[in-house]
Every structure is written in structure tokens, then in C-alpha cells.
Amino acid sequence: MKYNGQMAGQVLVSVIIPVYNVEKWLPQCLESVTNQTFADFEVLLIDDGSTDGSAELCNDWARQDDRIKVVHKKNEGPSAARNKGMECSKGEYLVFVDADDWLDRCFLEKLYDRAVSEHADMAECDVWRVNNRTGHKTLRKTSEAMGKIYSLEEQMEYGYTAIWKCMFHRRLFTENHLLFPDCHSEARAVYPLLLCLSKKRIYVQEPLYYYRLFREGSLSAVPRKNQGDSAEGIAAYEILIKSFRERGLYEKYKKILKKLIIIKLADLLAAFLTQRQPDSFLVLTEKYRQFLRENFQDYQDKVYLTVGGYNLNKILSNMNILHDPSGRFGFSSLISIMNPIKTDIVVSHKNKYRSFMLEREIRHQFWSVMEEKKPEFIVLDFIEERFDLVVCCDGYLTKSDAFDGCETKTEAERVIVRDSEECTRLWQDSARSFIQRMETDYPDTKIILVANYLSEMVGDIHSRRYFEDLEEIRKINRILKQYYLFFKQNCNKAKVVEASECENYYTDRLYEYGAVPSHLNELVNREIAEKIEGCIG
Questions:
Q1: How far from each other are the two terminal CA atoms of the chain, in whole angstroms?
Q2: How far apart are CA 113 and CA 115, in angstroms?
Q3: What does the pLDDT look like over 318-338, one tens digit per residue?
């Protein structure tokens, strides 16, 4: 049935949706857009040469709803589609929605009302990230940490680099002659610049956008190669730096640009770790290192390995050094590193990252990676040492939550509980052996020990509370404390970072991957990263 609503005068908002082979997901997207509580908007569907039924689907929706206009064009990628949408649009404000995502019913109303009432050039909201395979959704705070709203500089460094959660005043693009560039990760090339060019930006602290993760055929999974770009994000940052130079903004934001590019390239590496073959990943990593060396003369390129919990890598990604995830050893322990199993067994996990880390433990790859990378330093914490051990084939595996979530695994001969005397002796023997081998085979490699513990509290900068299983947490932490003390006493070359002495040492209650005691928060992670950098020299 034809849409009977009449837009009141001028179109206030243009919703621009690039469409390419999304027949399966487009209806949900358009249902959410056309059922907005806000009235005065148009929808521009830019069919980018779709080869499935998406083009006809666009036409069907346009026949039913006068607010929808369709433009069919040859395939040139999402940037060209967005640029075409801006060219054809009439709205005072612009919104860019991905065709496989969807909106809260109040998305347009809440962002528009705030933008108009506060005379903002740019408004953005929080995001629900929805796993397309499981339906599980996680909250992503886009412009704050622990209840503290980011400054402009913090938003550039740590903010969620995406344009589809935003509403922009048209003049931000027209007066600054901005278009989306034709490259992979195109939002990375424009988002920081849009932040700097906005006279005022506002943040709606509600999740009003639904972003679909792990959708088969998406550009994040199968990047589009174009204009010589190797589809790895480097071109986006070349464009970003050039844009800041052309507008006379480079010197003012040079330090921020360096930090944000290091952080965002590390994010890309983390995403590509399980998507690329080892040789391809190695080439990609070197390209990133070369890009940083060429563009920032003061960039100090260092190679390092990490052994420890997931949060240790969140800490290290805040350093002024490219964090290479191929140097990570997670869900592992000193006991398994020094007492590897001797039989070839198969262990798999539905989570690719966890499967990758489990493979590393089972194939006892730590020393081979040490030999391959010859790192300047290693960083370790003992958070993963909280788990029990599995005796298997004359060796040991760490009975981590990743191991417990395996789809297939060998039958364990027995389990050694972490708080047993047997485990204590085994750990001390393993620690001595580890220290001795490091001193013998890698005397020039620095060892940085980060004394991390399970956090006892969860909250934000406004309030916090103790975890319910406080006694169990403290029991584990007493074991970890003895481990840290033993290692410090037996390894003279280790430089120690007492992470738990930091003021904000607790778990973020809204952390996207779960408010659990082994996770901390972004504010304290940055503080610990600075302490680690002080040890590197």
C-alpha cells in the first residue's frame, strides 16, 4: 500500500543507504527506517550494481512508500554510493545507514532533536553489536569510558570510528568539500576529520543503532579491492593525513593522529589475525610498520611478545607501539609452556581467536615464535594461571574457559587443581625453567612483569560495588600474589609494573565483552600502558 504521510515542507533528514547484494537483510533495515517516530525524512536507496534481488526489492519498497527514492548505478563501492546519495539528497541533515543493519525507532528523532536544540554539526549514539550467527548482542559505548565522556582528542583516539551511528549537518560536507574516498575502511579516512571540522558535536548516550557482525559476504569479511589499495586500510590513513595537511590541521593534531593510527591499525590486525594465512598476515604487519615509520619520524618500532590474559592485550594496544596480535599467547600458562604435551591432538573452538590460541598451546609454539620474532621484550601477567591444569599425554594444558569451550578435545588423564601443593611445586619448577631459558637463550630480551589480579570491584567513575564471589576472587588473588613474588625473587632482569596499585583498578560495568573480574576498564588500561612504556625505555 502506498505511504500516505506527507512530509511537512522541507525534508529535514536524508537517510542514505548504499545497497549491494543485501536481499536477505534489506527488508529489516527498511522496516526500521520507515517506522521511525520522526516524520520529515527521505530515504535514498543507492543500488550499487547489485547482482541478486536487491535492485528489485528497492523498487518494490519505493512503490509502496513515497519517502523512498531509488538510484541504480554501476558497482563502484560504498563510498561512491554515499557520495551519489549526498548529491541526490535534499535534507538539512544526513544519515548514512548500512543496508544490513537496522535502527531503533527513535534513532532519527533523538539525534535530530539534540542536534537542532544544541546547534550541533554532528550527533552520534551508542551501538548494539549483534552477532549474525548467534543473535547475541553487546553494547558498544562509542564516545565515553566508564561514564566519562570523551574530549575531542580522546574521541579521535578511542572513539568508535564509524559514520553510520551519526547524524551530520549537510554544511559539514558541503562547506568543507568533503566526499567519501574510494578505499577500504573509508570511514577511517574521514571520521577524525569530521570531528575536528565540527564546530559542535553531541553524544546521545543510548544504543540506537544495530550493527550486524559476522555477516557473510560483508566488506569487513571480504574487503573490496580498488584503486591499487591492498584492501588493508593503509590508503585510508594516507588520505586522512593528506586531508589534515591540506586544511592546515596537521601540526595541531600530529601527535593525536599518530596515536589514533597506531591504535586503529592494531584493531585491524586483530581482526585480520584469524582471517589471513600466516605469510599474508606477516606481509600485512610489515606494511603497517613501514607506513608508521615513513609517516612519523619519531615512531619507535619495537617487536614484543605477550603471555597473559585478554585484558593485558587491551592494555598494550594503548601504547605508542603497534600491537601485533601474532605475538600473543593467551589461555596459556608457564606450566604448559615449559611442559608441553608430546602427542598430536585436535582441539577446535567455534571462536576463531580462541581456537588460534589453543592451537598455539597444544603445538607448544612459544619458543618457535620467540626464535622467529626475536622480540626486544616480552610482557607477561599471570591472570591465566588462575585455571586448573589438565594432565595430557605426559604434558599439561591449561584448563581455561577456552579449553572448556572446545568442540573436540582429547580425554584428560586427570586434572590438577590450581590451589594444590602439586600445582604450586609444578608452577615454581616451570617458572625457574622459563627464567633460566630466557637468560640463556635470549639474554638481550627484556622481561616486563605486569602484576595484574582479578578485580574485586565493578562499576564506573560514579559508583562501584564488590563482585558477589568476592571470597573466591581473593582466594585466587592470593595464589597470584605468591606467583608474582616468586617470579620477582628469581628473575633479576624482570621489570615489574604493579598494575593493581592504580587508582581505577576495577571492572567496567558496561564492558562490551563482559563485566568479569579478569577485565578492567579503558581508563586504567591506559594508565598501565604508560607504566609499561616507562619500563621499555
A1: 69
A2: 6
A3: 999 999 999 999 999 999 999
